[in-house]
Amino acid sequence: MTVAVVEAGSFYEISNGNYSQMATKGWYAAIANITGDPAYLWDNMFPFMKKSFTFTPPNPKFRAKNATVGYDLSAFNIPVGGPVQLSYPKYAQPISSFGAEGYSAAGFKEANGFLDGNLLGYGYWPFTLRPEDSTRSSTESAFLSQTATRTSLKIYQSCMARNILFDGDKRAVGVNVTVAGRRPFILHARKEVIVSSGFIHSPQLLMVSGIGPRAMLEQYNIPVISDLPGVGQNLHDTPAIGGVIHSTSVPGRSAWTRSASSFENAVQNYLNNGSGPLSSPASDFAAWDKFPANLTAGMSRSTRDFLKKLPSDWPNVEYVLQASERILSAEQTVSDTGVIGTILVSATSKGNITIQSADNTVAPLVYIGWLDSKEDQEMAVAAYRRAREIAAGITAFGEEIAPGANVTTDAQILEYIKTKGIGAIHHGAATCAVGRDASSGAVVDSKANVFGVKGLRVIDASSLPFSAPGHTQGVTYAHAEKLVQDVIDAAYDM
């Protein structure tokens, strides 16, 4: 078997926070409704959610007694699971032990691990970490390197897919590729071509191959294989919009770097047994919430109507308790800070991916669309007000450093978010969205087959219909496991 592996985006081994949780039952029901396929209902997807992971409970030898973790073993295949290791760090951030008091005072309830189809509530979340040494359990280490040594899988390193090739019957028969920019050659496909290039480059590859909006393809003299207006459209993301920053009475996450001895101890603990502050990816305590009535009352009718239409278990905002060490201005004297970070997980705004050349070595144009809609702007302001309610109950917090006590009106808060708060968290999805047919703006069917052609699938977060209400790692693993089973079933006529 020959497979062209195409990866796009940032240095994911470094930038990914390793956070892993599942979406909600209502979120999956929404996908089942969009596709008309009950295979996407929670009960049918749950085996695929379990399949990738092996769970190791937190080690009480290393974690503080006030850093107790709640989890549900029914969310895992016990005792033998999949190749990706899921566990908890051998170190809890000091600020996190104050999380329960702040969230509960604001009306949150304790969650049970964020893997059982319910996100509403607070708690510690699991990470894709190898428990023995606290290194990242990645797709490369868990799947690729293991498979490459014992199967006929052939990997082309530094290989870029330039365009997909089709026969006269519109069947994908291969991929035109180049390695390290050298002379292109063709990888032939015996059965199917699978695109897994991410929410930016999967639609780009389809478009330069003749699949996408006709007008755009003709603009760059690309022969139209399948006129699909939805390719590159419908970009959903869950933007990180900053948060409320306070001084704290506990060490920040880089406090161990302040003296030679603490630095040496941290390094030795990590090298010896994967423990200490270096074993923690950073933020380890969070909550998901739907806006309470006191915050929705001041929203516009359109925002309230949108929120009412969401499934009852689909949260609006993720609130992350973070320890930080951040200098906001030259006058600031506080180095240890704590943050209630906010992420909009029910955003309405949409962006798009468009090409600016028939040559896909030319970067596509990405319009991310954050906070375009009035609804998202109102939710962003409400999220900050809710974050302040949480912060008020955290006894380790001191003065509010940012946005600052003088930032109180909706306009002031929104201006702060737009200029200093908002940023990427890389949860983009839906640019090759799944759906019933192309007329709805969908690009692939419920088994990831691209409309209008044969032998071509898109299996990555771009073929979700919208971004998940939380972090996308666990959701994308489950999505891929389900679709890979569809590929296997088709190969064996099952």
From TrEMBL:
Alphabetical list of SUPFAM superfamilies matching this protein: FAD-linked reductases, C-terminal domain, FAD/NAD(P)-binding domain
**Short name of one Pfam family for this protein?**
GMC_oxred_C
**GO molecular function terms noted in the UniProt entry:** choline dehydrogenase activity; flavin adenine dinucleotide binding
UniProt keyword annotations, A-Z: Glycoprotein, Oxidoreductase
Q: Answer yes or no on keyword Oxidoreductase.
A: yes
Which positions fall inside the Glucose-methanol-choline oxidoreductase N-terminal domain?
A: 128-239
GO BP term (any one):
secondary metabolite biosynthetic process
Enzyme Commission no? 1.1.99.1
User: Active site annotated at which positions?
Assistant: 427 (proton donor), 471 (proton acceptor)
Q: What class of enzyme is it?
A: oxidoreductase
Q: Which residues form the Glucose-methanol-choline oxidoreductase C-terminal domain?
A: 348-480
Record family assignment: Belongs to the GMC oxidoreductase family.
Protein name, UniProt field: Gmc oxidoreductase
